[in-house]
Amino acid sequence: MSISQTIEAAGDGSGSEFRRGVASCAPVLLGTIPYALVLGAQATQKGLSTLELSMMTGLNFAGGSEFAAIQLWTSPPHILLIVAITFLVNSRHLLMGAALAPFLRDLPRRKVFPALFFLCDESWALGLADAKQRAAAGITPAFSPRYYMGAALAMYLTWVSFTTLGALLGPMLGHVETYGFDMAFPAVFLVLMRGMWKSVSAARPWLVSLVAAALVYLFIPGAWYVAAGAVSGLAAAWLMAGEA
Description:
mainly alpha; 12 helices
């Protein structure tokens, strides 16, 4: 079904665009729930309260950096190290925001700022793909704010709710990693990568980031592999810009 037929099938009105965004995000939400539970359970094992975990997931809406922060969490915590790693992991949002910028340019700030606050890998991938499909079909405006917010808010509420539930259930479930729930995290990102795939050449920064993180993980103790993967991926994307 083409994007025009999908929009027509969803019905008229702004509410239909919001519902279309929620429906598009539904398969991703199902994959998100298991690793949201894992993060919540891991947080309680590290000594965070349910309220602290809910505040972290609600204010820093970025699962990758939250997993990194939990892995680095000690008592007392090394705040500067956690902040630095969080910045590095979330620095990919600079590139994600730049990719969305041409579609957000004509929106008023009262719509742009909420859109950027709720920006995450999943909502970005869905919103950008939808905007490109609408542009290719000649639909204006190409970016649908209500579609994007439908996907983004569904993702936000699911993430905060199920990480909180994981924190509440964690003490009863024990080490939830033994159930294999954490495999859902890479699985969701593989699905997102499949949707963004252009060519082997365009994927070279991903490969550079993967190799660098793997080598550092194997040979250097600690969580430096997170920083190595983030920095090498960003550097590769910058150096290879325009070549793909």
